[in-house]
């Protein structure tokens, strides 16, 4: 599917979908337990991959017809050896989190995914599993999927780098809670994307599991039970997805745009509100009501570190292209190891749209004062965040902006283009 966006304005009210990060963790947490209901889950390509993985490990899931509740009968801390290869599709979160699950099973598990996922680094997690006396191999011996994992591990201590992916820490903590001995994670380098581990600890706590931060990393006791209070867990709204709506409001909503479902949580990507405030946006967050109101504003470039918020880079890059002055996105090398090299892809895409961009290994600078955005035909690169950010850029670019492979927004924000159209944007697909 191709999606075409014309220069246009937006207004009204919109609700971002439930959090993808929380949904992944909640589905797997329910799988580690006996019985739980996950309320308001994000039903997307990525989270469906985690649901399939839970089923492969012996759990059962049932999604209500209105998609408001996912009932999970879990494998109660003892995953089966899957009867078939686990296909994680394009979901890096699924692969990393459930690779550690495989290390608990008494046998061999094979995990793979699509071409993009098979290019993403998994080596540190494989090394950690081997330190815990499990078997962990890359079939091509390059630290990438397909992966072969063997267990069962009983727990112990593993040292891993913190600057590749926080998902390795999450995977070990979630699995460690149901291991015999528990798992201690020692970080060899500073942890990037630390708020995502905060999300994990928040979800674990909601499921009755305790994990703690230590002086050098994290620790979780073994022998714990996953059981949320009242047998259910409610997924909060997704700030990563909200970022596109908030950016659209700041760039193209002269009469204001209200984003609903914005309740405070451990999500690092709530930092988009602070970024917009620093850039001079007219924005107000009513935390009690869970509503953010933002209006079209004259923005000024700022420097932003995305060390803890890698998913915000595409959104901030687009804001920078429409702002006065220079916006510098720093601490971004780890953003190169997502579904695509998002640093390079955003540099190329915005340059194609007429932006003045300087790409360095760990910095992306967008010179908004030298930029007049124009429409272009751009590949979606099989990356939902690239597609949505470029669609927002299309709202303020002269002419038409066409994004190919735009159906990949279903990974995290099904109905994204419909939402833009309902807000008044001129969209065709």
UniProtKB/TrEMBL annotation:
Record: residues binding 3-phosphoshikimate: 20-21, 25, 165-167, 193, 311, 338
Binding residue positions for phosphoenolpyruvate: 20, 92, 120, 167, 342, 385
Localization: Cytoplasm
Record SUPFAM superfamilies: EPT/RTPC-like
UniProt xrefs under Pfam families: EPSP_synthase
Keyword Zinc-finger found: no
Biased composition (Basic and acidic residues): 1-14
HAMAP family tied to this protein: EPSP_synth
Description of how the protein assembles with itself and partners: Monomer.
Family per record: Belongs to the EPSP synthase family.
NCBIfam families cross-referenced by the UniProt entry: aroA
Protein name: 3-phosphoshikimate 1-carboxyvinyltransferase
Gene: aroA
């Amino acid at each position: 599917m191709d999606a075409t966006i014309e220069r246009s304005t937006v207004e009204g009210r919109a609700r971002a979908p439930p959090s993808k990060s929380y949904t992944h963790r909640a589905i797997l947490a329910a799988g580690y337990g006996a019985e739980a209901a996950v309320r308001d889950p994000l039903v997307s390509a990525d989270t469906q991959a985690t649901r399939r993985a839970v089923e492969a490990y012996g759990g059962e899931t049932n999604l209500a017809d209105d998609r408001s509740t996912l009932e999970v009968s879990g494998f109660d801390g003892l995953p089966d050896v899957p009867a078939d290869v686990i296909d994680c599709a394009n979901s890096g979160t699924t692969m990393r989190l459930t690779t550690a699950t495989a290390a608990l099973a008494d046998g061999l598990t094979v995990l793979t995914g699509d071409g993009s996922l098979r290019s993403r680094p998994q080596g540190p997690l494989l090394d950690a599993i081997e330190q815990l006396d499990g078997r962990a191999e890359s079939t091509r011996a390059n630290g990438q999927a397909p992966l072969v994992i063997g267990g069962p591990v009983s727990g112990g201590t593993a040292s891993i780098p913190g600057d590749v992916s926080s998902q390795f820490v999450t995977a070990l903590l979630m699995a460690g809670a149901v291991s015999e001995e528990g798992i201690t994670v020692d970080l060899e380098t500073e942890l990037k994307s630390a708020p995502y581990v905060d999300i994990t600890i928040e979800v674990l706590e909601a499921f009755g599991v305790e994990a703690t931060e230590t002086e050098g990393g994290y620790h979780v006791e073994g022998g714990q039970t996953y059981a949320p209070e009242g047998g259910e867990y409610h997924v909060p709204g997704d700030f990563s997805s909200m970022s596109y709506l908030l950016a659209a409001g700041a760039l193209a909503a002269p009469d204001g745009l209200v984003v609903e479902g914005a309740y405070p949580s451990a999500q690092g990507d709530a930092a988009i509100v602070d970024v917009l405030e620093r850039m001079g946006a007219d924005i107000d967050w009513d935390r009690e009501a869970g509503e953010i109101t933002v209006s079209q504003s004259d923005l000024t470039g700022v420097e932003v570190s995305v060390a803890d918020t890698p998913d915000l880079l595409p959104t901030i890059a687009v804001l920078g292209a429409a702002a006065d002055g220079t916006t510098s996105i720093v601490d971004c090398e780890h953003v190169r190891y997502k579904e695509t090299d998002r640093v390079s892809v955003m540099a190329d895409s915005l340059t194609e749209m007429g932006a003045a961009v300087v790409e360095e290994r760990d910095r992306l600078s967008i010179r908004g004062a030298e930029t007049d955005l124009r429409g272009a035909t751009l590949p979606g690169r099989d990356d939902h965040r690239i597609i949505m950010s470029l669609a927002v850029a299309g709202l303020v670019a002269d002419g038409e902006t066409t994004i190919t492979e735009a159906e990949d927004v279903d990974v995290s924000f099904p109905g994204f283009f419909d939402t833009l159209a309902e807000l008044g944007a001129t969209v065709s697909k």
